[in-house]
Amino acid sequence: MSVSTCSILSIGRGLVKTDYYIGDTDLPHVSKCRDLGVMITQDLSPAVHINEITAKAHQRANCILQCFVSKDISLLLLLLLLLLLSVHLYSALSLVLCATSRLVD
Fold first, then answer.
1. Which residues pair with residue 38 across a beta bridge?
2. Kind of pairing, strands 38-41 and 25-26?
3. Residue 39, exposed/middle/buried by CB under 10 A (0-12, 13-18, 19+)?
4. Tens-place pLDDT, residues 17-71
């Protein structure tokens, strides 16, 4: 266990600040933490998690948009449609191959 990554998150209205230790290290109290990729807050509100996800999506979309010389919206939407279609077809093909390989075994 990595003590430097451990912290205490108290959940609920009546927050009790009890000190906890691992060895001689005092664990810090935090108002939010990330566990298995999900941001959890003291009030269990999904707002912080959703804000982080949408901020990352906007950053990625802006990076992708800057890669194109053309700013024609209809062309960009067509490219997005083709990308989504190719991802969907790849996923479907992978599922079919996985299912057929299980049938053969």
1. 35
2. unpaired
3. middle
4. 788 899 888 999 888 998 888 888 888 888 999 999 999 999 988 888 888 787 7
CA distance 25 to 8: 13
* Rounded (5°) CA angle 6-8-11: 140
Label residue 104 by pLDDT band (50, 70, 90): low
d(CA 35, CA 39): 7
Of all helices (H) and strands (E), which one includes residue 81?
helix 73-104
DSSP 13-77: SS------EETTEEPPEESEEEETTEEEETT--SHHHHHHHHHHHHHHHHHHHHT-S---HHHHH
Amino acid making up residue 29: H
Torsion of CA 94, 100, 101, 103, to 10 degrees: 150
